[in-house]
Protein: UspA domain-containing protein
Organism: Aegilops tauschii subsp. strangulata
Amino acid sequence: MADSSAPTRVMMAVNESSLKGYPHPSISCRSAFDWMLSKLVRSNTDGFHLLFLHVQVPDEDGFDDMDSIYASPTDFQSMKQRDKIRGIHLLEYFVNECHRLGIKCEAWTKHGDPKEVICHEVKRVQPDLLVVGSRGLGPFQR
Amino acid sequence: MADSSAPTRVMMAVNESSLKGYPHPSISCRSAFDWMLSKLVRSNTDGFHLLFLHVQVPDEDGFDDMDSIYASPTDFQSMKQRDKIRGIHLLEYFVNECHRLGIKCEAWTKHGDPKEVICHEVKRVQPDLLVVGSRGLGPFQR
């Protein structure tokens, strides 16, 4: 078998829970993560390298729908900053979990439309596998 | 991690090569099989249980397009018999490979439209993962 070869690189797109508060991973992406650990990685922690992508949607909280006439550039700046911090906290959850389990990982954020960004990043990063959360449709796709 | 738990059940739909001769697996499903071994199973042979499904398409060699006025029921019977044997030989390839590598497996054939049969069998068998061959589109889907 191939455990002397390069580890299996699994890319995972993660997003926040829609519940307000501290940025928690969504239920679907946490399920996908748990599924991946128990069904793919299993005890073979050295054989896998996990890649976490969080796509930040520019209008995530409907900012563009609001009257923004009185918004100053500073407001935009501080919102971007806040979103960035939330994204980092989200990724921190997965990186910490991997660290605890001894699985190598990388994590990064990108801005844009999730579908487009995920496809773009898959082409760029060329993972062996892409895991995305789903809402009861099954978490798996390549 | 979860290696004390039930093995990961991976179902794989396999088909024959379109090249004539002894029933060989198609290039795409052999690639999918190799990919699964090297990227999912890796050295963790105890952690996986492979399920091979071969769907036999009733008109696979265009029999219905032929003039069948003179075909006797025996002809049908012997053709069904021949198809069945080809299917069994095909599955034998995968079962032998698994046996050689020490991976538990099961294999069976069904008749019908591959898409419908595969979906039906996935619902019935409830694998953790479905692997299907593809023609350059990437071998993975759940």
